[in-house]
Write a structure and sequence with these properties.
Blueprint (H helix, E strand, L loop, with lengths): L20 E9 L2 E5 L5 E5 L3 H12 L2 E6 L10 E3 L2 E5 L4 H20 L10 H21 E10 L6 H8 L4 E5 L7 H4 L5 H8 L4 E4 L2 H15 L2 E3 L2 E3 L5 E6 L6 H9 L1 H13 L5 E8 L6 H13 L8 E8 L6 H21 L7 E4 L5 H10 L2 E4 L8 H9 L6 E5 L12 E3 L4 H13 L2 H17 L2 H13 L16
Parallel strand pairs: 1-4, 1-7, 4-6, 7-8, 8-9, 9-12, 13-14, 13-16, 14-15, 16-17, 17-18
Antiparallel strand pairs: 2-3, 5-6, 10-11, 11-12
Helix pairs in contact: 1-16, 2-3, 3-4, 6-7, 8-13, 9-12, 10-11, 10-14
Bound molecules: 6-O-phosphono-beta-D-fructofuranose.
Pfam families: Glyco_transf_20
GO biological process, one term: trehalose biosynthetic process
Protein name: Trehalose-6-phosphate synthase
């Protein structure tokens, strides 16, 4: 981790109060990555990802501002413009990086919200840092937002922002969207600060989740742990305000992926990838952040056992696994990296031939064009998380299969499984079941694959990320009548 210099975009230093945005987005990260050119000059490039491309047009049209952390530990940073959006950097110290980001966000909330796939750690000083950083985001938003503006808070790192912001600015419409799963009451209740987090979210007018089950978990917890009256998707607060909690399944910029997949550069690269792999009959593909929720280890074992059991040889089938480095200083992630390295080494040592490894394992991040080339080149996409809010890689693969061929093997515990019903669905904890579905995908009749892929392509074409953003913002900005505040709250659990 290193401290970076500040890129100055305007002569006079702009303060948050100068911005006066009609639409404010808050996310842990700014939607740009810093690039350093050969001559040493620095610049910003828009980060890949659907969220920013969906929001960019509406933000440009609404004097939009995005508040976030620039991705390096940085205490002093200036407001700047990029692609028509005002970017307002939030500085965090090295200690806050360790306690708010690596600690409370990614070693407490992340495992807790993902079914305890790893054991969450509870530390009081991490909580204090989480509160402090959330407060900084809220205070900045309170300064940046114009009178009556719409504010949209993103994800688990910022769950206290809605209520902290409402205390400062009751004139705002505040929305919150959780990109990761929201756990059932039995798991969430372990959290020492469960009530504070629920109350943090209740500062919003609309709380969005990936799936309706998650919204129901939230409503039930609010009733049980905070004691507010609820009915279906609505929470009735004692002050007459209502909070709606419902599902808005996120998606991708489908047209952009289709365009990329059809481009001559990506098509040529896809052919080269197949050639480099020796043109086997089938290529399996996994693309994930190297995260213990993704089920990479179990998937590798399932694939290797299919070779070991003689269902196909390394000449007939190979696996390309991209595992992009993530949160590398957090203990559980370091351990996972070591275990995965060891397993892939064993598998290739046992089963590989000269020039024919069973698994091509790439511990690296790639640009979107290379990902698209992999989606085009590979026949069977394997997405087997133990728990995942949505999993956009599954949707990206489908968008890139322009010829309506290829198979998707998908965990039933990924949010995407609720929409992509025609995938080869698997329980990632059941290695034999996973082997059976991977083999079924390997042997599938092209007609069956075509039928499945056509249906899934229709789904991702009809529900893209722009529809998602519009649906959320329309619901958030549609006026709702206040309820009768004399309704008696239910007794606290
Ligand atoms: O899935 C949740 C999420 O925060 C994504 O928004 C993000 O792309 C990914 O995890 C990686 O997160 P980080 O910001 O910790 O690298």
């Amino acid at each position: 981790m290193h401290r970076v210099g500040v890129v100055t975009r305007s002569r006079r230093r702009r303060s948050p109060g100068d911005v006066r945005a009609e639409l404010v987005v808050l996310a842990n990260r700014l939607p740009v990555d810093r690039v350093v050119h050969a001559d040493g000059s620095e610049d910003w490039r828009r980060s890949p990802g659907g969220l920013v491309s969906a929001l960019a047009p509406v933000m440009a049209a609404n004097r939009g501002a995005w508040i976030g952390w620039p991705g390096d530990v940085m205490e002093e940073c200036e407001i700047f413009e990029h692609d028509g959006i005002t970017l307002v950097p939030i500085g965090i110290s090295q200690q806050e990086y360790e306690e708010y980001y690596e600690g409370f966000s990614n070693a407490t909330l992340w495992p807790l919200y993902h079914d305890l796939v790893a054991k969450p750690e509870f530390h009081r000083e991490w909580w204090d840092a989480y509160v402090a950083v959330n407060r900084r985001f809220a205070e900045t938003a309170a300064e940046v937002a114009a009178e009556g503006a719409t504010v949209w808070v993103q994800d688990y790192q910022l769950q206290l922002v809605p209520s902290l912001l409402r205390e400062l600015r009751s004139d705002l419409r505040i929305g919150f969207f959780l990109h990761i799963p929201f756990p059932p009451a039995e798991l969430f209740s372990q959290l020492p600060w469960r009530r504070e987090l629920l109350e943090g979210l209740l500062g919003a007018d609309l709380v969005g989740f990936q799936l309706s089950g998650a919204a129901q978990n939230f409503i039930r917890l609010v009733r049980q742990r905070v004691g507010h009256k609820t009915h279906r998707d609505t929470v009735y607060l004692p002050d007459g305000r209502t909070v709606v909690a419902k599902a808005f399944p996120i998606s991708i910029d489908t047209a952009q992926f289709e365009k990329l997949a059809a481009s001559p550069g990506v098509q040529a690269r896809a052919k080269q990838i197949r050639d480099d792999l020796g043109n086997p009959r089938r290529i399996f593909l996994g693309i994930d952040r190297l995260d213990y929720t993704k089920g990479i280890y179990a998937r590798m074992r399932a694939f290797s056992e299919l070779i070991h059991d003689g269902h196909f040889s390394v000449e007939e089938a190979t696996f390309v696994q991209v595992a992009s480095p993530s949160r590398e200083r957090v203990d559980q992630y370091r351990k996972l990296r070591d275990e995965t390295d060891r397993l892939v080494g064993h598998i290739n040592g046992d089963l590989g031939r000269i020039g024919r490894p069973a698994i091509s394992y790439l511990n690296a991040s790639f640009p979107q064009s290379e990902m698209a080339a992999l989606f085009v080149a590979c026949d069977i996409m394997v997405v087997t998380p133990f728990r995942d809010g949505m999993n956009l890689v599954a949707k990206e693969y489908v968008a890139c299969r322009l010829h309506e061929d290829g198979a998707l093997v998908l965990s039933e515990f990924a949010g995407a499984a609720e929409e992509l019903r025609q995938a080869f669905l698997v329980n990632p904890y059941d290695i034999n079941g996973m082997k059976a579905q991977m083999l079924a995908a390997y042997r599938a009749d092209p007609k069956d694959l075509g039928r499945r892929m056509r249906a899934m392509r229709r789904t991702v074409a009809e529900n893209d990320v722009a529809n998602w953003a519009n649906a959320f913002l329309t619901e958030l900005t549609t006026p709702r009548p206040a309820h009768d505040k004399h309704l008696r709250p239910v007794k606290r659990a």
